[in-house]
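Journal club side-thread
Mid-discussion, someone asked how the predicted structure for our own chain would compare to the paper's figures. Pasting it here so we can look after the session.
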Amino acid sequence: MSRTIHFDLVSPEKKLVSEDVHMAIIPGDAGVFGVMAGHSSLVASLSIGLIKLYKTEKDKPRGIFIMGGFADVTGTKCSVLAEEAIPVEEMNAETLAQDLKNLNEDLGLAKDGAEKAQIQDKIRVVQAKLSAVSAV
C-alpha cells in the first residue's frame, strides 16, 4: 500500500477537501510543486491555477481551481488556504468561453488604461479557468 499525506483545502466560504491523498500538485508563486508523504516542511505562497489531487498512484487527478493563497506542508499533512476555490467539475467550458468572448469585446470598448487593465486581469483569470477545465 502506498503512503499518503493528509490534504486540507479551505476557502473563506468553506472547507472543500479534507482527505488522504497519494500526491497533490500545487501552483506555487515560484512554480508548480508536488507534495507526497515525507515532504520537507514548507510554507509557500500560491498563485492562480489548478491543484491536482491524486487519491492513488493510478487514479486520474481531481482538479480544484484556486485564486492564490498559501500552503503549509509537513511530512504528513498539506494545508492550503485559498482566496477562492472552485472544483473543476463545477466549471463549464462553454460558459467560460462565452465569458472570455464578452470580456474581449469589453476590452475593445474600454475608455481608459485603468479600465483596460481591470478587464485584462479578468481575462487572465478566465483563461486560467479554461486551462484548468481542459487539464483534468
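Post-session note: Residues 5-88 form a domain with the ATP Synthase; domain 1 fold (CATH 2.60.15.10).
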